[in-house]
Design goal:
There is one protein chain. By secondary structure, this protein is α+β, with helices and mostly antiparallel strands. It has a single domain, classed as Jelly Rolls, CATH 2.60.120. The protein has four helices and eleven strands, in the order βββαβββββββααβα. The protein has helices at 52-56, 134-162, 177-186, 198-219; strands at residues 20-22, 27-33, 39-46, 71-73, 78-84, 87-91, 94-98, 103-106, 112-116, 123-130, 189-191. The longest helix is centred in the middle third of the chain and has 29 residues, at 134-162. The two termini are 26 Å apart.
Length: 232
């Protein structure tokens, strides 16, 4: 094991927080029961997208840690309900705009990502998940986003986090790709490779995550969960 060669990111204690506040209050996650015997909900709040002028001035299009990478779920079905704002979602290459009060269901194997579609208003979206996998999913989301937040803070410090980024302290610490793949593997999430036919891209995306997860666990000494982020 070569964990002594891996840069350590200080972990902020978020285990008892609900909602969990990120990026200086610009984004948050809130996990709560839905009025159903089989569903629970993760409510995501994300900031407005940067304008064209802000992007030209150097702002990142990927301006929030809540914005997911292009991915797919091996077994899990998700549904999205926009509570406030406007969401843009990409499903197997097709872009859709989802307005407040509208819903989208995403079946296993569908390549997807989502983000705020507005340059002026925050997006609040409820992501419905299966109650049978609640513990696994809550562990995954709490660990993933708390880790990404801590990578931000490790680069910019507390003052930078309060301002929603790393402006006060310089470039953020990049998340370790092997830790990220270990998180993804633990929740049966795979990377989407949309440039390839799905019969090739899906097994390859799963294989890339599996290999990275094994390196992360057995070589780098990473874990799928940390007590500062999740108790269970």
């Amino acid at each position: 094991m070569l964990s002594f060669l891996v840069a350590k990111v200080p972990r902020r204690k978020t285990v008892v927080e609900n909602p969990i506040i990120f990026e200086g209050g610009r984004s948050q996650l809130y996990l709560y029961p839905k009025d159903s015997d089989s569903k629970y909900v993760m409510r995501c709040t994300t900031p407005p997208q940067p304008s064209a002028a802000e992007i030209k001035a150097g702002a990142s299009v990927d301006n929030s840690i809540i914005n997911p990478p292009h991915h797919f779920h091996v077994y899990q079905e998700e549904y999205f309900e926009v509570v406030k704002g406007t969401m843009q979602v990409k499903l197997d290459g097709a872009h859709e705009i989802v307005q407040q009060g509208e819903t989208v269901t995403i079946m296993p194997g569908i390549y997807h990502w989502f983000s705020n579609a507005s340059e002026s208003d925050e997006l609040v979206v409820d992501i419905g998940l299966n109650l049978n996998s609640k513990s696994r999913d809550e562990r995954f989301f709490r660990n993933l986003y708390s880790y990404l937040e801590d990578c931000n803070r490790a680069g910019g410090g507390e003052e930078a986090a309060k301002k929603g980024g790393t402006a006060a302290g310089g470039p953020k610490t990049a998340p370790n790709p092997f830790q990220m793949k270990l998180f993804l593997h633990s929740a049966d999430v795979a990377l989407a490779l949309p440039g390839l036919p799905k019969f090739v891209g899906m097994p390859l995306g799963r294989a890339l995550v599996w290999v990275g997860a094994m390196v992360g666990k057995w070589v780098c000494g990473f874990s799928i969960s940390y007590p500062e982020y999740y108790a269970g």
